[in-house]
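Expect sequence, tokenised fold; for instance:
***
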Amino acid sequence: MQIDSKPVIITGNSLGGSVASLFTLWLLEKINLSSTKTRPLCITFGSPLVGDDGLQEAISKYPTWNSCFLHVVSDHDPVPRVLISPVNPIDSIYKPFGTFLLHSELGCACFEDSQSILDLLTATYSECPENQNPNQVLEFYEALVQHLNHKVICKDATQLVKRNTKSFEAGIITQLEAIGLVRPQQQQRNNGIDNLITRTERQEKKLVILKRHVFDPSKKLNDMKINMAYLEWYKKHFKDKGIGYYDSYKNPGNLSDLNVVRYKKILTCYWEEMVDEAEKKPQKEGASFRTGWLFAGTNYRRMCEPLDIAEYYNKGLKDYINQGRPKHYKQLEQWLKETEKPASNPSQLKKQNVASSLTEDSCFWVHVEEARISCELLSSRESSIGEKESSKHNLVEFENYVLSLMKNYAVSPEIFLPQSSFMLWWKEYEEIIRKGIMGAAYYSPLTDLMKSRSYQNYATGGLEIP
């Protein structure tokens, strides 16, 4: 959806303000903000709060959307306060987003911090009988609009501010005086107002710091590339030693293994934050964000998740996919599936480059470890009949899985290195087949391929699987 260059203003009073906010959110989702200079502006008057802390956090962390909302609230209007807990405003389920223009007979002041707004909405309410009359409350807003150009948003309150008061605190006091919480004639403030000033100052400072330190993935991307380059070196180094980086990390014994722990931790922290930020963004912008960074995220997942898998199974644990897989890996994989085209036969270029590629399924080593566990159960005299039958089924499924990856050149040839866990599995499985545990004269395409050593042609792209 496109909007022309004319200003688009959506407004509403009371419950109509809530509708205006929801419509603006819908409009922001539909329009392409990158191709238009005009953004919609939603101005509400006396609107009740819309959305919980999840919605508030998502919108507030995305300045382009957050700046589209201005909520005007009179100190005489009970409606914006109906969903706020009077005992502890911070515990309210509903949270504010956007900018709030708080209005009193003395003036107006703007606030953006969610917690400060909740505090001030409660503190500024002036209870009186005429507040129950919607028409009377509406007149306050009409007067505000008519005279806004002639009023000062934050009046000078130098008479209230002590000479030794810090500038930030002075600004807060000025704002509170403008909305009637502090009176010029007051010689001393009560403890409640002092506490409110302290809380508001603390929250507004936090907001300033957050704005200065908004997570910008592009600024850290070069550092992440350096960390990934080290892991690439680590992978190549142990490939040349015939073991593979997964098994080297699984059986640490070198200084380079310890360095990898550090680099992996840095990368994981970065991508966990990346995924978290993408999930919090509004749907359309989040989708664009995910697509732009998905290639780098996929490389990270395929490189680093095997190392997490190695740590997991080193602890003697099982069922990593259902019991131990971190959320950000799942999300990165899901986003790739949403954008990936249907699989087709591998191209000649893919076959030629398979030696330098990463295994496409970052959970490949999970299946290897689970297959080795199945071999152990199948060989054990203590296993029940049910466990043995289940293990046989799992091993057949694993064979089909590996064969499918090989057919599509979707697995790294490192799995065939002599000391890899996959080759250890094959030795165990070959012995099980030799003993007839899988059945007399057991045959399968994968076992035939492994026994004939045809897999040696895989790294050069010369293996054809019907």
